[in-house]
Specification:
The protein has 312 residues and is α/β, with parallel strands linked by helices. Helices cover 44% and strands 13% of the residues. A 6-stranded mixed β-sheet has the order 4-1-7-8-12-11, with helices on both faces. The two termini are 42 Å apart. About 2% of the residues have low confidence.
């Protein structure tokens, strides 16, 4: 039987904490044998969890006996983690123990140095800060989870459930994992990644930029099949000057900016109307439904129809 230790720190997010307890605790092998022994451990006997206080039965010493350590997210992901916790995680990592994080728990693993040189993910809202603080980590904000073998990370709280099911499949195979997924009323694999949940806001032009009127015009005319030459004429610039200034101030090209604006409009229509994909493609300014589907999936990670099923 595998032993799973769930590490609870102050300000732990309750859903992140309860997910591994429920999923691993209810996993059953053939003959109704339990697949996991689950423990909650903490650096102190009492842990604050927002609306309630948790009394942990085990201390950090329980990490040494675990086959898997789960680190949930906290409401204060940027706060320093106590040295005894970091030391215990480093010792577990050096011993080959599997260590996984849920949501912003990735920051705890990052502080311990367990993610240096590895690819990782976390909730998309804090992914830029993870990349800024820890440049040695390859941050991927678009996926639900990342499996590096021994070290695993997941995105938001729900993605922690995806990761737990993935680990069960690794440990006991697809049949046991599928049973665990059914108990959680979850598919064993969800389509797409975290990108479909990201709010793709366009960055504003720098204050006082001459591009600001152009951006408003692009938003208002996103439904038209605009060309780079037409955009440059409206801006009163040559195409070369427009491209240079746009890259310098916006970090992208005018047409790429326009594509994202169109996809954002399409997301709204998919969520709020019953229009066909073909009608939406024309309405937001894509030349063909095929081009629309390709661009939409490239930005969000899922097809327009899958997005509609998930968010309408």
């Amino acid at each position: 039987m595998h032993t799973v230790a769930v590490l609870a720190l102050d300000n732990v997010i309750p859903f992140d904490l309860s997910t591994p307890l429920e999923v691993f605790g209810r996993t059953r092998l053939p003959g109704e044998r339990p697949g996991y022994r689950v423990r909650v451990c903490a650096p102190a006997s009492h842990v604050e969890a927002g609306l309630f206080t948790l009394q942990a039965r085990a201390g950090l010493e329980a990490l040494a006996d675990a086959d898997t350590i789960i680190v949930p997210g906290t409401a204060t992901p940027f706060a320093p983690v106590p040295d005894p916790v970091l030391d215990a995680l480093r010792i577990a990592g050096a011993a080959g123990t599997r260590v996984a994080s849920i949501c912003a728990g990735t920051f705890t693993l990052a502080q311990a140095g367990l993610l240096d040189g590895l690819r990782a993910t976390t909730h998309w809202l804090v992914a830029p800060e993870l990349a800024r603080r820890y440049p040695r980590i390859g941050v991927d904000p678009d996926v639900l989870y990342v499996d590096n073998g021994q070290i695993l990370t997941s995105a938001g709280a729900a993605a922690g459930l995806d990761l737990c099911l993935h680990m069960i499949r690794r440990d006991y195979g697809s049949a046991v994992a599928a049973d665990a997924a059914r108990l959680s009323v979850m598919p064993l694999e969800r389509e797409g990644g975290q990108a479909q949940f990201i709010v793709h806001e366009q960055p504003p032009a720098p204050q006082g930029s001459a591009l600001d009127p152009l951006l408003r015009w692009l938003e208002d005319n996103a439904g038209r099949e605009l060309t780079l030459d037409e955009i440059a004429r409206h801006a009163g610039m040559s195409t070369r000057t427009l491209l240079r200034r746009f890259r310098e101030q916006m970090g992208t090209t005018p047409l790429q900016w326009l594509h994202r604006a169109r996809v954002r409009q399409a997301q709204h229509l998919l969520e709020t109307t019953g229009h066909s994909v073909e009608r939406i493609a024309a309405q937001v300014g894509f030349g063909s439904p095929t081009a629309f589907r390709d661009r939409f999936k490239r930005i969000t990670g899922v097809t327009p129809q899958s997005y509609r099923h998930a968010f309408q």
